[in-house]
Amino acid sequence: MNVGFIGLGIMGQPMSRHLLQAGFSLTVYNRTASKAQALIEMGAKLANSPAAVAAASKIIITMLPDTPEVEAVLFGENGVYEGLSAGKIVVDMSTISPEATAQFAARLREKQCELLDAPVSGGENGAMAGTLTIMVGGDEQAFQKCLPLFQAMGRNIVHLGANGNGQRTKLVNQVICALNILAMSEGLHLAERIGLDAEKVLQVVSSGAAGSWMLSNLAPRILQNDFQPGFMIKLQQKDLRLAMELIKTLGEDFPGTALTYSLFTKAVEAGLGEQGTQGLINIFKRA
Ligand code: NAD
Hints:
Elements: E1 2-6, H1 12-21, E2 25-29, H2 37-41, E3 45-46, H3 50-56, E4 59-62, H4 67-75, H5 80-83, E5 89-92, H6 98-109, E6 114-117, E7 120-121, H7 123-129, E8 132-136, H8 140-153, E9 154-159, H9 165-193, H10 198-205, H11 213-217, H12 219-223, H13 233-248, H14 255-269
Parallel strand pairs: 1-2, 1-4, 2-3, 4-5, 5-6, 8-9
Antiparallel strand pairs: 7-8
The structure holds nicotinamide-adenine-dinucleotide.
Nicotinamide-adenine-dinucleotide (NAD) binds at residues 6-12, 30-32, 35, 63-65, 69, 72-73, 94-95, 120-121, 123-124, 230-231, 235.
């Protein structure tokens, strides 16, 4: 089957590699064309616009930073919309606004095309290992058609109902992640400030009730002063902004989300946006 992939960043590159390895015929596009080089060497074709990707593909995947980029790639000049014909499916695996997702899906239906929102969790490592968690919203039949693609990239794949519900579930995921990042950072900072051996602390608390994915995967990187991004602070801040927008409609306080949103915003304002989320610890004055 001909599949298109747009957005070859930290996540998009390894995800598209898994599609090639599973035998799908792949056409790719990225704003920075050099990011496609390794995939071309593996057999992917390079298109010169999102419209050309859509014309060449039955299913078109996008993996872009935020809502404005997805809107531009779908509906801008030479966008995916221009290359669509009836029966094609667009799968947006970026994390973007649930409301905008539903609007994009309605616009695609004007061309008898379906949109699935299919954001992921599992980070760069999950993308490289092909073990992503995938949260899908949209038409059930379209979901079934795309399942073999999801299975090439992920392991835990769940259909959650109508368009937008994949994104809403991902925002729940991100609220939990952000609070875990804060817990991990603050605990590690406390250990350092009171003069404990942080490596030994990590060794012992990781396997107890304080253990978490963040503690196992990100804390060791902090101890090595490695702030390279698997997932950038500016993208986590974007996800918390989307969660805050969702929460605003409820007229209720979610104090943890509000706190992490303000701390991640502070990190972005301090120039840490391109660090990995483990860089949140750098908002503390570290000895
Ligand atoms: P990234 O910045 O590394 O990749 C985004 C890619 O999109 C870049 O290659 C960029 O050149 C390309 N791009 C941007 N605007 C474009 C445009 N108009 N046309 C074509 N290409 C364009 O980001 P990422 O970490 O790969 O994240 C992508 C999405 O996945 C985000 O929504 C993020 O929140 C989500 N996500 C990331 C992770 C992670 O651990 N990195 C995990 C889960 C979900």
